[in-house]
Amino acid sequence: MASGIYVSSSAARARLEQLETISNNLANMMTAGFKKQEAIYREIHNEVHSSLGSPDQAQGVRLPTRFLPEDRIGTAIDYHYTSWAQGPLDETNNTFDLAIEGQGFFSVRGPNDEIMYTRNGRFTLDSEGVLRDQGGFEVLDVTQQQIRIPVNQGQIEFSYDGQVSANGLPFAKLAIYDFEANPDAQNNQQAQGNQAQGAQGAQGAQGAQGAQGAQGDQNQSFLNQPNLNALLNTQLDPVGRSLYKVQDANLITKPSSGIIRQGYVEGSNVNAVYEMTNLLSSTRLFEYSTTAMKAYNEMDLQAARDVSRVNA
Fold first, then answer.
1. Of the candidates 172, 183, 167, 177, the residue with the CA atom closest to the CA atom of residue 148
2. Nearest CA to 118 among 4, 17, 31, 230?
3. Region of residue 144 (phi > 0: left; psi between -120 and 50: alpha; otherwise: beta)
């Protein structure tokens, strides 16, 4: 079988996943607080050759190393990158529509009392006066408790820093969080590494350094993130409804520098023209890849027919 069919099939599958990502962006273009995603590719051809060897190795010219046809896949989706760019602030004049201008997330209590975070500030009151998001989850204050709005107590106002007031009298403060890596976790990891090196002998220390190096590099790549966007992409997992949950316990929250805009909601940061252009481009590339797959398949069929005639 021609190896090109595996390369073209991997390209087709990667483009199909990209089309699904673009379609999801377009479907949520009108969803408040939605952040668009992009599919990030990685080339695995070099990884295969470095870890599995080459076809010559498989033939015994060098060391006999596994080299299967599926190892020839050239590209794959590595991860989905979330763009945290600010979406447009749309004025609604609704009392409980809130938008964050700048960095920060609202905090809500999700299923099983799990704390989740969102940029979607389209809130409502239930029959008991509890502030909830569109999914029915409680919006939390700075003490991680529900916010109960006193009914028939006059005008409700949310200040720039999240202070909630009725007729000018504050009674709660809305939680707006940012994220950062926990410095204590980094110090503990460095201390553990130093202790391990001190306990090792001369020969054992060399082996320990090699083993700890790979894990240490992974930890440092996260703990020393200078870019907040990169930090959020590695540690916040989207769960739907514009909600996100924290993946790493070492990620800690801190008060945000963003300000609250009452009577506004943040729209999605999806650019319709950009997404439609990507949609058309990815569709064409997907068609090219499937056409190449068919061509390679015809080559295999023709080769099988020619071999049968020669043997006859």
1. 172
2. 31
3. left
State residue 71's pLDDT score. 52
In terms of phi and psi (left: phi > 0; alpha: psi -120 to 50; beta: otherwise), the region of 168 is left
- Type of residue at 194: N
Helical spans, DSSP H, in 33-164: 45-52, 55-58
Q: How far apart are CA 163 and CA 241, in angstroms?
A: 25
> 105: closest CA among 25, 32, 175?
175
Report the 10 Å Cβ neighbour count for 299. 14
| Global confidence as pTM | 0.70
Average of pLDDT values for 135-151? 93
From the CB of residue 169, how many other CB atoms can be counted at a distance below 10 Å? 10
Query: Alpha-carbon distance 249 to 182, whole Å?
Result: 9
How many other CB atoms are found less than 10 A from the CB of residue 273? 7
User: Using CA atoms, how far apart are residues 290 and 296, in angstroms rounded to an integer?
Assistant: 10
Q: What is the dihedral of CA 226, 230, 234, 238, to 10 degrees?
A: 140
User: Which tens digits make up the pLDDT trace of 37-59?
Assistant: 988 877 665 554 455 455 444 44
Cα dihedral 135, 139, 145, 147 in deg (nearest 10): -120
Contacts of 184 (CB under 8 A, 6+ apart): none
**Residue 209 carries which side chain, given as an amino acid letter?**
Q
With contact defined as beta carbons under 8 Å apart, do 178 and 254 qualify? yes
Amino acid 132: pLDDT: 96
Could you tell me which residue, 113 or 193, shows the higher pLDDT? 113
Residue 286 has pLDDT above 80, yes or no: yes
Q: Is 8 exposed, middle or buried (0-12, 13-18, 19+ CB in 10 A)?
A: buried
| Four-point Cα dihedral 16, 20, 21, 27, nearest 10 | 150
| Rounded-to-integer distance, Cα 75 and Cα 73, Å | 6
